[in-house]
Amino acid sequence: MKKPLLQFTEKGIYCDAAKVYLDPWKPVDHAIISHGHADHSRWGHKKYITHHTNVPIIKHRLGDINVSGRAFNEPFMINNVKFSLHPAGHIIGSSQIRVEHQGEVWVFTGDYKTEDDGIAVPFEPIRCHTFITECTFGLPAFKWTPQDEVMHNINTWWLQNQAEGKTSILFGYSLGKAQRLLKYLDPSIGKIYTHGAIENMTEVIRPMIDFPVTTRITRETKKEELLGNIVLAPPSAHGSTWIRKMVPYVTASASGWMAFRGARRRRAIDKGFVLSDHCDWHSLLTAIEATGATKVITTHGYTDIFSRYLRTIGYDARTEKTQYEGELAEMESKSETEAAV
């Protein structure tokens, strides 16, 4: 029996014909990496291939690794298997991985979104036979508000807090979400301060993107300097000694999970803004349809519900277990947060 072009193994998604893994979660010899988030780019592989804008990002995160960069739509061969990287629209440097061999084409998305955020290269539908998709927000309840409206609401919230003499603290993952927020914060309102983890990552990305000026918070920063201004911080800073020194403050989180009633309360956040770097329900269905694929494999999120729905509308759909976590992965550990202070 012919082996599938891509197989799900204990180490990750494996292409036996090329002897290469896609976003493996255990150390392997040869890995193609879709993007820089921790659940997709892990330390310990002997060789990495990724999009060239993701090279400095994963080097910053993983240290001295053997990595080579490729351009979008640039074919490269490994053991007679044709690979290419294509825009995923998830975060800067994020790619879908196209795999072609003996007339068969598979596409692995990693993580993706179809809304153009003005930072990542916008998602590009790729024709294929089999499409491997996340479904982090694969429920009909998830329907995103356009980014312009969300950012207007965030800047209005900042202004209101400023009028009350309070510091605004906005939580977003240090890679991707923080830069998306930063790009559209209005610096005419006040100064934009950053937690060290976010500032470190933004320094890596700043040569590629035009961002407003930011000020790193240090031990010397006085809370009086922060009043009326905004602080970008990773979610793991919430409740830390670092943040308790900023009283009086108001907190907010920018996440797709803020669409769920009760999510803000459970996280003890004052305000929630629904902003995700993943597809909502409609975007997932639109993206899948645009590929022309007849087979769909769901890897993380509401996998069983989403794949069951896909089968009802005519797709050959199934789920596979992986160690990808979607937006749940976009949380630094306390140790990472403290190390960056």
UniProtKB/TrEMBL annotation:
SUPFAM superfamilies: Metallo-hydrolase/oxidoreductase. Transmembrane segments: none annotated. InterPro entries: MBL, RibonucZ/Hydroxyglut_hydro, Xnuc_lig_assoc. This is Putative mRNA 3-end processing factor. One of its GO terms (molecular function) is RNA endonuclease activity. NCBIfam families: Xnuc_lig_assoc.
